[in-house]
Structure formats: structure tokens, C-alpha cells
Amino acid sequence: MLIVSDDPEFARSVTARWQTEARAPGITVATSDVWHPSIALGYDLVITGPVRNGKSAAILAALCGSPTMAVVHLAEHEKDIAELHARHPQLLVVARHDGWINALISLSCEALRRVEAVARSQRAERLALESHQDATLGRYMLEMRPSINNALTSVLGNADLLMLDSSKMPPDSREQMRTIHTMALRLHQVMQRFSSLAAEMRAGENESQVETETVSQAATLRH
């Protein structure tokens, strides 16, 4: 979490209040003198407070341009909230009043939970996409397995025939032929392992289906 403010008391109050929470995030404090949009990169939450020289508008504009970052702002007056929301619809705003610190922390905790939930959802989507791509590749390999095996059988057969009469071949050619034969055997072993894995996966799916049907039938009989 990043706190951006020129008011030392604001930063101290927010930091101290966060420490009473069960899950206190790591906190960094920056003033407007050192502010640059790149400072906020990598933070899930930014809390902005009072700053000098009217820099607040520029800071909020830079922060609210990020779709993955939560921004909570302390407004000096209630009347400022409507204008801030009009400029930055995604901005979370708390007005300075009695108990503002508790309201700001509660809003910030909720914002962090939302950021974490979005991050988990995005990770799940990436994993689902990767799984789909792997499944597509696996199906393609299964479809191409007969053609690959036929090609390897042909390569091995021709290599064996040539090696039977390798005495007529130059030494370099004999060595190259042995390499071709060895690599073809290795590819054949890989394809055999792939076939075994495919068979094991199908067997596992069948066993799971049988167990599910058995449990379902047992539950039906009990009722």
C-alpha cells in the first residue's frame, strides 16, 4: 500500500490505524515533492491525503488511470465528493469528519479484498486458458500419433536396411546413419510413453465415472 500526502500527521494516523488490523499490508509513504506516476507501480492500493500547491488533481488523474489499482482519497469537505466522483468514477472517497480514519480504513480493506479477488479471477482465467491450450495440443498429438508412428517405423526400417550393408558406406556416413537410427528410436520411445499416458488417463477417467455411478446408485437405494 502507498500513502501519498504532505501531511505527516495524516500518514502517521493511517499507518498507526492499519497496524491494529489483523492483516496489515506493507506501507510506503511518499510526498508530493517526490511524486511521479511510476512510484505507484506495483501497489494494489494507494491512499491520498492533503498535498500542497494544488497537486491533488494531477495525482488523482494519474492514479485513476490504472484499471488494477484501488485508490482511496480523503476529501476535506463533503461537498467535494460529488465533483471527485464525476471526474474519477472509480475513485473511493471519504470526507474528513469525526471518525474519518475508521471509515477510510474500512473502505481501504474492502478495496484490497476486491483487488485480491480480481487478481485471483485473472489468474484462474489464465490457468483455464493454458489448460485449454494444453488440451488442444494433447488432442492434436493423439490425432497425429498414427502418422508419426508410421513415419518413425519407415525411418527405422530404412535405417536398419542401410546399416546391414554399412561396410560400403564412408565412415562419416555410417556414423550419421547410426545417429539417425538412435534418434528415431528415442522418438519412438517418447511416442510409446505418450500412448501409455493417454491410456492411463482414459483408465482413470473410466474409474472415476464408475465410482461416481456407484455412489449415485448407493444413494438412490438408501432413499
Question: What's the quick description here?
Answer:
The protein has 223 residues and is α/β, with parallel strands linked by helices.
Explain how this protein is built.
- There is one protein chain.
- The relative contact order is 0.07.
- This protein folds into 2 domains: 120 residues, Response regulator (Rossmann fold, 3-Layer(aba) Sandwich), CATH 3.40.50.2300; 98 residues.
- It has 223 residues and is α/β, with parallel strands linked by helices.
- Strands 2-1-3-4-5 form a 5-stranded parallel β-sheet, with helices on both faces.
- The model has no long low-confidence stretch (mean pLDDT 82).
- The radius of gyration is 33 Å and the shape is elongated.
- It contains 5 helices and 5 strands.
- Helix 3 links the parallel strand 4 and strand 5.
Please describe the structure with a list of short key phrases separated by commas or semicolons.
223 residues; 2 domains; 5-stranded parallel beta sheet; 9% strand
Radius of gyration: 33 Å
Strand content: 5-15%
Q: In the CATH scheme, what's the topology name of the largest domain?
A: Rossmann fold
Largest sheet: 5 strands, parallel
